[in-house]
Amino acid sequence: MIAGINLYYCILKHSAAFPICENVFESLGLGWWEILFHTVNLIILVVALWFLLFKPIKKMIRNHKEKLDDVFQKNKKLEEETAKIKNEYSELMEDAKKEAVKISLEAAENAKRKSDETIENANKQAQNIIEEAKRETRVEQERLKSDFKDAVGKLSVEIAEKVLEREVSEDDNRDIIDKCLKEWEDDK
Known about the structure:
Number of helices: 4
Helix content: over 70%
Radius of gyration: 66 Å
Strand content: under 5%
């Protein structure tokens, strides 16, 4: 090891002192031709390693870096597309919620309108039933009055005939019946 350090020291620092370095080479058992041969071999080895190992590895690393860059770019594009789709989905969900609220409000309005119509129809039917009942009641009252007048008329004619023992005309009979009915209605 010390001899190797001395060799480099002699070559670098004392290039003018070539004879001193010769002693070092001789002590190592190396001649100029051997040193030159080893130096050429070293250069060939370095160049061979450069082309066989360093360049292919460097190319492989560069290709791998390009692939990673492509993957990162694709990932970035996918993230952007995902964000875009997410925003579109959010907008669609918001629109769907608004539409659902709108439909719900319309359904509530339709239900209210139908219930109002049903109530109105029921009220009309009830009013019609009441009016029909009143009309039937009036008709029945009129019929009962008429039947009552006829019955009272006949009865009063019979009573009058017996009391007077004469025949009462129909006009007399009606006048008597009307007076009686008026008195009864006024008493009510």
